[in-house]
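subagent[fold] <- orchestrator: predict structure for attached chain, return tokens only, no commentary.
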Amino acid sequence: MSISLVLAAVVGVLFACGVVLILERSLTRVLIGIALMSNGANVLILATGGRAGDAPIVGDGAGANGRMSDPLPQVMILTSIVITFALTAFLLALAYRSWQLQGHDEVQDDVEDRRVASRPDEESLDAGADAELEHTDFDDDEDADPNEDVPPVQVPVTAEHDVVGDRGVVGAEDGEERP
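subagent[fold] -> orchestrator:
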């Protein structure tokens, strides 16, 4: 079983173009990239399925040339087509909704991603978690509270629930603390 050089080149080109398009910011280009990659996967499965033969179910099983087709690659390609269709429908819905809300279908940067990208490169980032431990001196103040810099969390009191405070239970109905 050998794969045709032309089919291997087609698979490579489809995957390469699909990867380039998936890395774009536009959801339309991402959609086209996923379609190209799925078509490349289908051609790959088809090429590795071997030479064509007679239908495996129809007839006495021997066929005219004595070879039967393997139905597994065909089933895998059909499954891949259904999955690609569902993913395409989902991405089309995302692109349409983005177009309705923002007037374009480009994916925006996340605020956290921008913060991480603007962070200066330091040696401690490359060294990993051990570099942070080297700069921390735990022996200076053994009795210090590790949570002293953390602000207290304020929980809103509702009518259905009681909140446990530092000095007891605060009831929602009277607003006073109970032991």
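orchestrator: received. Logging for downstream: The first strand starts at residue 163 and ends at 164. The mean pLDDT is 75.
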